[in-house]
Predict the 3D structure of the following.
Amino acid sequence: MLILRGGRVLDPSIGFDETADVVIEAGRIKAVGRDAGASYAASESVRIVDASGRWVCPGFIDLHVHLREPGQEYKEDIGSGLDAAAAGGFTAVCPMPNTKPTNDTRAITEMMIARAEEHGGPHLLPFGAVTKGQRGSELSEMADLRDAGAVGVSDDGLCVMNAAVMRHAMEYARTFDLLVSQHCEDHDLTEGAQMHEGARSTQLGLRGWPRAAEDIIVARDLILAETTGARYHVAHISSAGAIRLLREAKSRGLRVSAEVTPHHLLFTDEALLSYDTYCKVNPPLREEADMQALREALADGTIDCIATDHAPHTDLEKDCEFEAASVGMNGLESAIGSMFQLVRDGVLTPMRFVEALSSAPACLIPDFEGGSLREGQRADVTVLDPEARWTLEQEALRSKSHNTPLLGRELTGRPVMTIVGGDVVYELET
């Protein structure tokens, strides 16, 4: 038995925000409430953790990560990725299918899940590919992927450009209520693009990636979602225009959702003025107006959740000419510390912050038991110290890669314990 005593318990699934104990037994939440652990404290088999001054939350879920296995284990593998997730406070992660080979078959999905179960730690909930080989033409066997354990489908960084293919994908996915996640990018408008199209791309002499490339695909896909009735998700939304489209679609009751990354909430294209390849991401960092629109949309729920888009790369893939550098940022271990800035600045309430990382993404995963501290629920729990001041050090990262501009920066707010199914899978050493 484990008792988390006297923490600030925040459970958005039931609107609970009180100082309370959380009692965990046999992998489940046994009791939550003020002094709920008092009657169990005398037992010799009980571990009591003083959670005073800490936040006790439903386990955090990351809907969008890249764990690189199979095929690119030199960047990350399932074991190192799960260790990084645990240290970042995540009890479940959803790896994207852009592996080598692509996760477009039952066998690969089953292998990934088996590797995760062998390693232990956070739950691994993979996305399968929408199309075979992510080539955008022939649909994958979504029924097999779902039966193997896939929780959604996405072609990830390769947008499904053919509208007919996307319509058929939505129709197929709807029969299983699978989430269809889209990287919204009209490739005809972004060929050769290196960063956001604007004054700074002109200043730097780099080909730009216009907002319209995102907005056009979002608009098309929302029409298709309405036509098919499918569950549609905008991956790493980045433009103010896409937010307007999403908000309007939600107002009409469409089954649509979206995620936003920490880096799009914290950085603009100004971060690229020094040609910092760690800030080269896809979609690109945009302008101040876009960042503010993203923050507002996350606060009011138009954007459902925060997802890291954890994209590990080696030094060779980042320490090179800007145009040759790989896109993506390491994010699992820095997300919470960086996102606390939005709570401190009053952009997000504590409850909305926790919701965007727990109950909101849980609602998007079919048949997943998570996102709640209700009695009887599986004990997936994240414990945070909101006042912890710490520096992100390369040597302390559990990820194999360290491609993040946050290295060496002081952050405030840190996961101190991650619990999965009642087992402590990460505990900060003090």
The longest strand covers residues 381-391.
